[in-house]
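From the shared-data thread, chain only:
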Amino acid sequence: MRYPEVIHHGATATVTGSCHQLYIDSSHSVLIDCGVFQESVINADPRIEFPLLGIKALILTHVHADHAGRIPELLAAGFSGPILCSEASARLLPLMLEDALRLQPGINPRQLERYLATLQQRTIGLPFGAWFPLMQSPELICRVRLQRAGHILGSAYVEFDVQYPLEGRDKRVVFSGDLGASETPILPTPKSPERADVLVLESTYGDRIHQERSTRQERLEEAIDKALADNGTVLIPAFSIGRTQELLYELEDILHRKALLNSSLPTAPDDLSDDSTPTFTDWPRLPIILDSPLASRVTQVYLDFADVWDHEARERLSQGRKLLGFDQLITIDSHARHQQTVNYLASTARPAIVIAGHGMCAGGRIVNYLKAMLHDKRHNVIFVGYQAKGTPGAAIQARGPKGGYVELDREHYEIKAQVSTIGGYSAHADQKGLVEFVAGMGVWPEEIRLVHGEVQAKKALGQVLERKYFLSARKLRLIIPGS
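Structure, as tokens:
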């Protein structure tokens, strides 16, 4: 076998379950990500079924569950190496895994505390842009560098510089992780690496171009105005890391503009039981409810790392604006208060905006809101993210406009609430962005492996890349695992 060599343990025929192994030689390798599956294989066995012998480290691109969710199983299987990630990811990882582990049966608080302590001992936060040595001997040198990927806070693409001194050759292997889209608020747009010999590239949206992103806030405002005209609650399923913070950022800007237009209107009450019911035009009295303890904690980490935000966001902060913690934001922590809020909004249909996880409605607090409100036509569900096949979110998105049903916790719930989708909120680069990531390199890859995408998306992206290479008179070895 000619090294380095890449083996894929996930994200080959799906958009989740990312897990890849880079063999440096026959006895040394590193793991890049170790994520769970979230779509039609949502009940797949999470156990680690590949041998761990020789794996020197786990390199984490970011902390979304489909890239990091199987770390507990990896440690249980006997992995004893370090977990390397960005400094922000090192802060976020314990929060994400603690939230997931609390839901697992048989784990008591003492076990959880011991596990989190072990996790923090193993995790090493690396600064962006600096090389970190992994292995060094007369026969082999390997170092790793993280670069900003712009997907969520702390997300990185990973560069490996592998040298074989006795053979007089070297290779640069790059794993994209999840690349962020352009014009995404809060975080800077990712820049292409200088070079790559082998590129493992995500392809989530490899077959499409995103809806215009510059007008998405305007479309969000219009959709909420239309939903609130029904005098009900607006439910927005959103993942706790990334999407929630972007929504808060844009809702703050809408409120900021409306306050400037009419500064005489009062602000929203702190107590949801206030008997006064605003009309749908009373944005300055509209409660915006963040019902996710994890999202609240993640939002604080975003604020702690405000120095890595993009120029626009930092400029707004300098003006004294509360971008992710404005006055009308109500955070729900305890389960008792969560249930009280669900019951209150379901019974009164008071206009409000609720942001709650899970983003694909496959668990989390959004499920209780859906169970209580989907049957009522006054309420609205607004999707702002990708709904993977086989998830409840995809079922609601497809069947809702037709008056169908969705299965939640093995029970059928009729959908009479209005359902809509706003494009332009994907945190992933589209086909154009993915191709530009490759074309922006000084030295284009000789080999590209397309992962983290459905077969159709990978094939469409592959065709565009092959055409790009052909027109540039470059040679490309295109590999599409799982197709």
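The domain at 5-209+427-479 is CATH 3.60.15.10 (Metallo-beta-lactamase; Chain A).
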